[in-house]
Design goal:
- The chain is mainly alpha-helical and 191 residues long.
- The protein has two domains: 92 residues, no CATH class; 45 residues.
- The chain is built from eight helices and no strands.
- Helix 1 packs parallel to helix 4 and helix 7 runs antiparallel to helix 8.
- The longest helix is centred in the middle third of the chain and has 22 residues.
- The mean pLDDT is 75.
Amino acid sequence: MRYRKRILKEMISAIEKNETVQKNTDLRKAIAELYKAWKFDATAKTIRNCFKRGGFSNQTDDSDSDDEDAIMADLKEKWKTVEGNGRITDDATLSDILEVGTELLTASYPTGEEILKSLMDNNRGQENEDVLQPKPHRTEMLQSFETIKRGFQMEENVPDSIFSSLIKCENFYENLTSRNAKQCKTTEFFK
């Protein structure tokens, strides 16, 4: 309502300047007026009202409806000025101004069927995905380094930097695992 009040003020200003009054506002102007409404008109009370109307708060403030009534009365008065001037010729009403955009979809919620389909699609996709692999054992990792080094040794034109990088990786892993080493349980030998 505060945004629409600003738009009506703009219409009245145009009438007073003997300019053409436009019922529709371009996007740039709308953004500018929304910014001003937020920056200058929105108070903590306004925000509390929004949360209350959205069902997020059960606090009541008796003066809330008084503010809304005052804004609505002011809007009606300003509309009389605009309408009475005769500059709006397309039979626009105050309701047209106040309710503009109320039909626009601002959020959508999935239907039960859409949720069910999504779940079924996810389940189908999971059947085809690989199962998470367990962490490889230390000996498996060290054997892998040896296998990779042996494989590169059998290839031609492999730069020495590859071998030194592999050795650095192997040394890093050995140091990492030796610091985290703990005493083995007898049950680990039977795996």
